[in-house]
Every structure is written in structure tokens, then in C-alpha cells.
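Appendix B, example 12.
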Amino acid sequence: MNKKVFKTMIALVVIFLIALYVLKIFFPEQFVMSIENENLIKIGKFIDDRIWLAKICSGITTFIGMFLYECAVTKKWKLNWKEFVEILSIIIITKCISLYDNDISNGISTIAMFIIPMLNNAKLKEVSIVYSVHYLSLIHISEPTRH
């Protein structure tokens, strides 16, 4: 991916996030998520009631996110076995630590999002930009809508 395409993609993501924040401020009622499908509610409750299953599902989604993040910052379409092992190791460590202390787990996860790409020859500038956009999108997703 050349520099111009990379800069354009980042600009589009930033513009999209700013637009979502502005819309969320002026029209908060449009951003309330409501799930009315009884089957989805049952599945969610089933997963939530079993901590081991919740950790497995969380680990899978974390792996997908870290995989895509690592691919983005290293400018690759796929990862090698070493990168898979690094990502899986961090996920296992953070999931085990989260059973005792979520703050430490989150700290290790955040540090890993800089260290792992840097070990795999990513540039700090690109890691910082992609991490910032990733973090902003997570804030947008996890922030509760206020009425």
C-alpha cells in the first residue's frame, strides 16, 4: 500500500469518526442499540452465564481484532507463525490476568499493541496513527449513549 492510499484511508476513517461523534451529540436517540430478537438474547444470556464461554468468545474476537491490527500496521495481508504465536500469547496472558485484575490486563494489552508491531518491523508513526484510530473507534463503540 503506498503512502497516498494509506493517508487517504486514515483521513476517511477520521472524518467518519468525527461525523459519527457530531451526529451522536445532536441525535443521541438514533444511537441506542436495541436487540429484540429473542434467539439473539438467549444466545447472549447463554454466553454471559458461562464465564469460560465468554472468555473463549472474547478471545476469538480479540484475536480477530489483533490480527487485523497487526496486518494494518505491518502492511501485510497475512501473518507468519511467529506473529500468530505473539498475538496468541498476549491474548492468553491478558485473559488469565483479567480474571484477577482488569486494569493490569488492559495495560498489558495496550502496551502489546505497540510492542508486537515494533518487534515485527512496523514504523512507530504508523503504529501510533492506527492505534489512535483504533482506540477512538473503541471509545465510540463502548461509550454509553446519554439521554
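Residues 17 and 134 are 11 Å apart (CA to CA). Residues 3-142 form one domain.
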